[in-house]
Design a protein that fits this description.
13 strands; Structural Genomics Hypothetical 15.5 Kd Protein In mrcA-pckA Intergenic Region, Chain A; 19 helices; Tyrosyl-Transfer RNA Synthetase; globular; 3 domains; about 10% strand; 5-stranded mixed sheet; Rossmann fold; alpha/beta
Length: about 400
């Protein structure tokens, strides 16, 4: 295969090293010199398939990987199918629930398709998809011992979450302690020149630098990206339940962006769009001077949907949002659930609204359904229902929250 020539375009390199970037190791000058040398670098991003979909948090460092791919460098998307069975302890106040291999592989099955909206897996310089079970799953106990001699208890114990758990009397399991070593081994096994990832992964990625120097006598660059955080400062991710999944419908993507605080507009443009820096700065200045942020937020929502579903879907999602959330109209198209002929679970005339919410999968459990109803988060035919004993029947429309509708038929 003929590889594309490596570009040393100064503007593209500057953008890679600055836009949405938190830190560069060992320093920006060293990485800039390597990128301008014309040498083709091997760079990777690792993703543990702990959920059934990639999300916007994954897209941020993946976009940096795409910038390097466009410059002609070799890029790898690594699926952590082995490490996902252990669970990355980063930012966790308690041990993760361990996943089976079957669960991990099921989660990962759509990752490449979702990543294809950002990375190209075809053409002259295709991205490579790898799985770290290919090497981690083959390591013997002797191999693990040999790996462990390059790290100390003091090094691993420096992690904030381990220190916090220890102070709180919570357990830190040995497999969690070894997680950074496994991620470090990924770098050695693939013999990479650079790793990109969110700044919450700094400790793990720097462990890879340590191991590369010890085993191969080689420098490994690390670039960490800023995180998209919610108003409380927590990173937006699947664990927190507030992140846009790349499998979300265009309407849900648009609506979720519109639910972000105004303070997230500028970071959102910086991290997940290609809007030029000077335009983003202009938006920031206008909003600081008192301009209405709504037009900017709508543009951000359109751009996010466009990136993952296309321009037509973005326009349709915007129209849907305007109709449902601003004009408070019921959407013309919505899922239908057939209740005619089905036994009535509640034993009364019609279905209880709690049973209907569960059966139509608008909620995951009866307890969640009751909570949603009691908190005023459920409407039937446009009217808020707060009585958990209320009933519904065919022909009615159930709405949960602002975006989820089901018509009973």
């Amino acid at each position: 295969m003929v590889m594309s020539k490596v570009s040393t375009d100064a503007n593209a390199i500057k953008r890679f090293l600055t836009r949405g970037v938190e830190n560069v190791y060992p320093n920006r000058d060293a990485v800039e010199a390597a990128l301008k040398s014309g040498r083709r670098l091997r760079v990777y991003l690792g993703v543990d398939p702990t959920g059934p979909s990639l999300h916007l948090g994954h897209a941020i460092p993946m976009r940096k990987l795409a910038e390097l791919q466009a410059l002609g460098h070799e890029v790898i998307l690594l699926i952590g199918d082995f490490t996902a069975m252990i669970g990355d302890p980063t930012d966790k106040s308690a041990t993760r629930k361990r996943l089976t291999r079957a669960e991990v592989l099921k989660n990962a099955k759509d990752y490449q398709g979702q990543a294809s909206n950002i990375l190209s897996f075809t053409g002259k310089n295709p991205a490579t998809l790898k799985y770290n079970s290919s090497w981690l799953g083959k390591m013997s106990f002797e191999d693990v011992l040999e790996l462990s001699v390059h790290f100390t208890i003091q090094q691993l114990g420096e992690r904030d979450m381990f220190q916090n758990r220890t102070k709180e009397g919570k357990p830190v399991h040995l497999n969690e302690f070894l997680y950074p070593l496994m991620q470090a081994q990924d770098s050695v096994a693939m013999d990479v020149d650079m790793e990109v990832g969110g700044n919450d992964q700094t400790f793990n990625m720097l462990a890879g630098r340590t191991l590369m120097k010890a085993v191969k006598g080689k420098e490994k660059f690390v670039l960490t990206t800023k995180l998209l955080v919610d108003p409380s400062g927590k990173k937006m991710g699947k664990t927190e339940g507030n992140m846009i999944a790349l499998s979300d419908s265009p309407e849900d993507m648009y609506g979720k962006v519109m639910s972000w605080t105004d303070g997230m507009i500028v970071p959102g443009f910086e991290l997940v769009t290609d809007v030029p820096d000077d335009e983003i700065e202009s938006m920031r200045k206008q909003m600081s001077a008192g301009a209405n942020p709504m037009p900017f937020k709508r543009q951000l929502a359109r751009d996010v949907v466009k990136a993952f579903a296309g321009e037509k879907a973005a326009k349709a999602a915007e129209a849907h949002f305007s109709k449902v959330h601003q004009a408070h109209e019921t959407p013309e198209e919505m899922p239908e659930y057939r209740v005619r002929g089905k036994p009535v679970p509640s034993g009364v005339e019609g279905w209880s609204v709690v049973d209907a919410l569960v059966e139509t999968q608008l909620v995951s459990s009866k307890s969640d359904a009751r909570r949603q109803v009691e908190q005023g988060g459920v409407k039937v035919d446009g009217k808020v229902v707060k009585d958990v004993n209320a009933t519904v029947k065919a022909g009615m429309v159930i709405q949960k929250g602002k975006r989820h509708f089901v018509r009973l038929s």
